[in-house]
């Protein structure tokens, strides 16, 4: 690369987002010692509502943590945006693309409890803080005797709420804790069979302008094809379910289908627990997918495997199985419930 200019990298301002972005920028500086990288911190709608204390599961709307970064990309104010991949909706705005997917951190959810207990050892009635319907729905089935309560705020805020006894335990993404050097706070890891992670959990997504070849070339050394194959399958699963939720039919082979900004306000998977996790075994990709009702009263799971070089096909096939075996009906039901509760943004 001989572009002698400053590359601007957009991020949210949370401690985790900054740590993730610093990691990316350090790799970029290593790979391109002659270039200048500048971190640009932007505030997203998700950061504003966190302050207002609205439970995340009630905020709704896609791209809560990503839209302002995408606008900066489209305006040319920044050249790339670093996201937690799971916060990035499966249908990106036109003009933007996923430029690279770096190696994944631990995709599992983690349990934190002051005395180091695992999920099975928590006392009945323990108040467990989780920030997602996906975790709540799955934990309800494993331990119906626990009190599951929403918890808001960044990682430090949540840890303080645990330390002060507002919660008896927390469940959050292991990846965030690992990246913040807080690995020692984790009491137990939840196996994907117990609590299937969110699509893309533990992975970063670096979003760029479609066709910005200079930037795409810069990112190539950071790309991890194994992670990319797994998260493409997970996101294709999510994309197919999102289409269903939005009343769109399947769009074969086009995971980027969708019209940004035109989704009905109750759509999106914020209100519907959806989980997906894929892993590579040799040259085969294995995918597990799940849809649940928010109260955990029903869960539909499916699994499949396919060639690693066709992840979208696998994701859509597993989604079709979920839809066919009860998932379609559940999405409609959960969608209706969200509407009754007035969960629109
Ligand atoms: N906005 C929630 C969010 N987005 C990314 C992470 C952690 C990192 C990851 O899952 O990759 C978290 C916190 C959590 O789920 O506990």
Automatic annotation (TrEMBL):
GO terms for cellular component: cytoplasm. Residues 7-215 form the Porphobilinogen deaminase N-terminal domain. One of its GO terms (molecular function) is hydroxymethylbilane synthase activity. The keyword Transferase applies. Pathway: Porphyrin-containing compound metabolism; protoporphyrin-IX biosynthesis; coproporphyrinogen-III from 5-aminolevulinate: step 2/4. Keywords: Porphyrin biosynthesis, Transferase. Its EC number is 2.5.1.61. Residues 266-323 form the Porphobilinogen deaminase C-terminal domain. HAMAP family: Porphobil_deam. This is Porphobilinogen deaminase. It comes from Caldinitratiruptor microaerophilus.
């Amino acid at each position: 690369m001989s572009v002698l200019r400053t590359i601007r990298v957009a991020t949210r301002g949370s401690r985790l987002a900054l740590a993730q972005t610093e990691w990316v920028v350090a790799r970029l500086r290593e790979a391109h010692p002659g270039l200048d990288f500048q971190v640009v911190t932007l505030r997203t709608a998700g950061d504003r509502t966190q302050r207002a204390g609205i439970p995340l599961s009630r905020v709704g709307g896609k791209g809560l943590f990503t839209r302002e970064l995408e606008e900066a990309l489209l305006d040319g104010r920044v050249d790339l945006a670093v996201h937690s991949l799971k916060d990035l909706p499966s249908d990106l705005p036109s003009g933007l693309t996923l430029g690279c997917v770096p190696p994944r951190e631990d995709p599992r959810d983690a349990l934190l409890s002051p005395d180091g207990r695992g999920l099975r050892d928590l006392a009945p009635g323990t108040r467990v803080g989780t920030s997602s319907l996906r975790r709540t729905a799955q934990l309800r089935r494993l331990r119906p005797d626990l009190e599951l309560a929403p918890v808001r705020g960044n990682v430090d805020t949540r840890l303080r709420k645990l330390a002060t006894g507002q919660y008896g335990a927390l469940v959050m993404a292991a990846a965030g804790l690992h990246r913040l050097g807080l690995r020692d706070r984790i009491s137990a890891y939840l196996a994907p069979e117990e609590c299937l992670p969110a699509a893309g959990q533990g992975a970063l997504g670096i979003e760029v302008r479609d066709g910005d070849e200079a930037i795409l070339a810069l990112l190539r050394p950071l790309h991890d094809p194994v992670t990319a194959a797994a998260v493409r399958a997970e996101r294709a699963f999510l994309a197919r379910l999102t289409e269903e939720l939005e009343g769109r039919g399947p769009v074969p082979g086009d995971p980027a289908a969708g019209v940004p900004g035109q989704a009905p306000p109750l759509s999106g998977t914020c209100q519907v627990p959806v989980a997906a996790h894929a892993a590579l075994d040799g040259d085969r990709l294995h995918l597990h997918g799940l849809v649940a009702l928010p109260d955990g009263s029903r869960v539909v799971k499916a699994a499949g495997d396919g060639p690693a070089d066709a992840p979208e096909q696998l994701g859509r096939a597993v989604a079709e199985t979920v839809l066919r075996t009860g998932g379609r009906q559940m999405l409609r039901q959960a969608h209706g419930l969200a509407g009754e509760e007035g969960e629109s943004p």
